[in-house]
TrEMBL record:
Major localisation: membrane
Residue ranges of domain ABC3 transporter permease C-terminal in the record: 294-408
Limits of the MacB-like periplasmic core domain: 26-253
Localization in the cell: Cell membrane
Topology with respect to the bilayer: Multi-pass membrane protein
Pfam families the UniProt entry points to: FtsX (PF02687), MacB_PCD (PF12704)
Transmembrane feature ranges: 27-47, 291-314, 335-362, 374-398
Keyword Transmembrane helix on entry: yes
Name assigned to this protein: ABC transporter permease
Length: 416
């Protein structure tokens, strides 16, 4: 065992000498490995970071949450002209489902509306994501509060002019002041602030809670009515955990069809969008990104492998005399084989480490510039190192075999 440790140390010394004595040649040869490891680990780190961000953004929502509306989250077999004729879901349908659907934790009603500006005294915050929603959303959306509260069922049903602010909106309007009880203006009306949400961070899918405000949906219904083209209603359903989702969706479909008086043979004029279907779609995209990243990086790793093999063949030729002397002094073939094999692996790992350092630098830049947490995980570091070692092993095997099979007499004579 001690012999092999000495062998490893000697191989490391030869690898460092190859770097120092032939800097340009070695670095150019290692460039393929460096770029290959940089490419694949950068892609994997980006995908992992994206997946982590998606998980974080959706962590407050149950993946079985249903968005019942006239639009589909994904592609549909129904022609567009027919989909455009679908009616919006209504508040009455929301109350019907709320009172009749089984195995449900919460049923809520929300309006998708255009962005607005909020004003407090002389301060104005523009481009605010306004979320008119019923009181059940606090449980459906998993909202957490920094201060204050969400509006209750009575305030929601009556459409009381109260509002809950995201952290950035509260800071922009009130600074260090306590916003609870303060009045601001929205839609030309005066609202009383009753709560401020905890800071969430930038959302991957556009708005986060930080840049959103929540108000009772019935306030907007009372102000503009139910037949406003600028508002898109949606019924939110949060099923109980562990239920049969297929049976649950069938129950929702049956009750809404009955409420709309749809006859047998008529298609559903609404869509049941399950959040898990959206996350599965995102997972599919992430998988494709991983696959494409591996293919692109594979070419770089292939070029890097040829570069390492080239270094090793040159190294064998330069040290032919030394190999002959080692063998004449009793060095076995496997000793020579491992010596060059270790050297190839060490050189490749050095190239891989350079690539990993570059990914680490890129991750720091992206995290600071884009406010996106780009994470280089321990798993990806280990994967990059192992990949580099495998490339070195594969690339160095043929030069190592050729070195181990040299005839000592011929090797010494050739080197003289």
């Amino acid at each position: 065992m001690i012999v092999y440790f000495r062998l490893l140390k000697e191989s490391f010394t030869f690898a460092i000498n190859a770097l120092t004595n032939n800097k340009l040649r070695t670095l150019l040869s290692l460039l393929g490995v460096t770029i290959g490891i940089l490419s694949i680990i950068a892609v994997l780190a980006a995908v992992d970071s994206l997946d982590r961000k998606i998980t974080k953004d959706l962590s407050s929502l149950d993946k079985n949450t249903i968005y019942l509306m006239r639009f589909s989250f994904g592609p549909s077999d129904i022609p567009q002209w027919k989909r455009e004729q679908f009616p919006d879901v209504t508040y009455d349908e929301y109350t019907t489902l709320k009172n009749s659907i089984n195995n449900t934790d919460q049923v809520g009603y929300q309006l998708f509306v255009k962005r607005e500006s909020l004003k407090y005294e002389s301060k104005t915050v523009s481009d605010v994501n306004v979320v008119p929603v019923s009181n059940e959303f606090i449980d459906i959306g998993g909202l957490e509060f920094d201060t204050g509260r969400f509006y209750n069922e009575s305030e929601s049903n009556s459409g009381t002019a109260v509002i809950v602010l995201g952290s950035e909106i509260a800071e922009g309007l009130f600074g260090q002041m306590d916003p609870i009880g303060k009045n601001l203006r929205l839609y030309g009306q005066r609202f009383t602030v009753i709560g401020v949400l905890k800071k969430q961070g930038e959302g991957l899918f556009g708005d986060s809670n930080d840049t959103s405000v929540y108000l009772p949906v019935n306030f907007l219904r009372r102000l503009y009515g139910d037949n406003n083209d600028s508002m898109t209603p949606v019924i939110l359903l949060k099923p109980k955990k562990g239920i049969d989702m297929a049976a649950y969706k069938a129950d929702v479909i049956q009750k809404l069809r009955a409420a709309r008086g749809l006859k047998a043979g008529e298609i559903d004029n609404f869509f049941i969008n399950v959040l898990s279907g959206f996350t599965d779609f995102i997972d599919g995209i992430i998988g494709q990104m991983n696959f494409v990243g591996w293919i692109i990086s594979g070419f770089s790793l292939l070029v890097g492998g040829f570069g390492i093999a080239n270094i090793m063949f040159v190294s064998v030729k330069e040290r032919t005399n030394l190999i002959g002397i080692q063998k004449s002094l009793g060095a076995k073939n496997h000793f020579i084989l491992f010596q060059f094999l270790f050297e190839a692996i060490i050189l490749s790992v050095i190239g891989g480490i350079i690539g990993l350092i570059m990914v680490w630098i890129i991750s720091i830049i992206i995290t600071n510039v884009l406010d996106f947490e780009f994470v280089l995980s321990t798993g990806n570091i280990i994967l990059g190192t192992v990949l580099a070692a495998i490339i070195g092993l594969i690339s160095g095997i043929l030069p190592a075999i050729s070195a181990s099979r040299l005839d000592p007499v011929e090797a010494i004579r050739t080197g003289m």
